[in-house]
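Issue: ligand-bound run for pyridoxal-5'-phosphate - logging full I/O for the record.

Environment: standard queue, default settings, no custom constraints.

Inputs:
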Amino acid sequence: MKIIPQMEPWIGKEEEREVLKVLRSGWITEAAETRLFERKIADFLGVTYVNVVSNGTVSLTIAILAMGIGKGDEVIVPDFTMVATPNAVILAGATPVLVDIVRDTLCMDLNQVERAITKKTKAIIPVALNGRAPDMEKLMGLAKAHNLEVLEDAAQAFGCKWQGKYLGTFGEIGSFSFSTPKIITTGQGGALVTESKRYHERMIRLKDFGRLVRGSQSHDEIGYNFKFTDLQAAIGVAQMDKLSWRIERKKEMYRLYQQALAGVPEVSFLPTHLDDVSPWFIDVIVSEPKKLAAYLKEKGIETREFYPSIHTTKPYRGVGRFPNSLWATQHGLWLPSSSRLTDSAILRVCREIKAYYSRRT
Ligand SMILES: *Cc1c(COP(=O)(O)O)cnc(C)c1O
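Outputs:
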């Protein structure tokens, strides 16, 4: 029986060729290939400035630091996200303030965001969970009215849009991740996009020992080392050429899952506008995801449970009511989602899900 993974990276001959080219040049740290990768991202998104860094956690951290946010400042983040989002706020020295989500998008509830704003609030981090987004127009308006910065955590939304405009390009800064399970990967990696020259330059200084010009001895600010490598960039350059295809494939896969599971009332899908959204993971809502996951595992099909609500994890345990975040955690399941999956593998997953529910009735 062939195991169907929930997710797997897809590295091919093109990546091999590009990596070999860089390797043979003898220069492997961040240089020309990284600039090429950044240019490809900039062209794809239609943004002015792109800065790639070690990963999608430090990208968020650097963005917060570049905004001048730190000790004593509050940053609003959703209670349902990958734990890197609030952790990056902590790493920057600021305080994450959790808000509940809405069930339709699994993204932050803007009414809750408004309620959470205090004198100490400096920024909002909307997370485009699985490529869906909150009402970005309303969010940007809210931020403007309260003089807050918006840092988009678009780690799961590379290539996704809100009303025709790429996610990551609404806020002052957008952050992406290229970790292994993301839609394209460089093993580890992150990208920061912005239209602000000031923020861009600050973020470059933060990632390279406080200097703007690589190799110079002029350290104008405190900066660290969150640089990339050209070996990773080589993989990224090849992956960028596959991005558009993968975005379309994710949409096709989602449609196929939806059609094949249409007659299964126990399984529901979130409202998803496939013109804008290419769901990176196939997410379904069921009553007892752990039981379904255990059954599928026996059948050689791997799934992934949704993230825990942040406020239930040990470091963040505290007061507050987050009913929708808890609902998502208790009912969500990510089905096999690799863009390498064939249609027949997807149909096998759906057949097993049907078999599971018909067995129980
Ligand atoms: C993956 C992810 C991150 C973290 O990115 P890394 O590159 O793994 O550090 C942050 N936020 C969200 C929403 C993510 O999915």
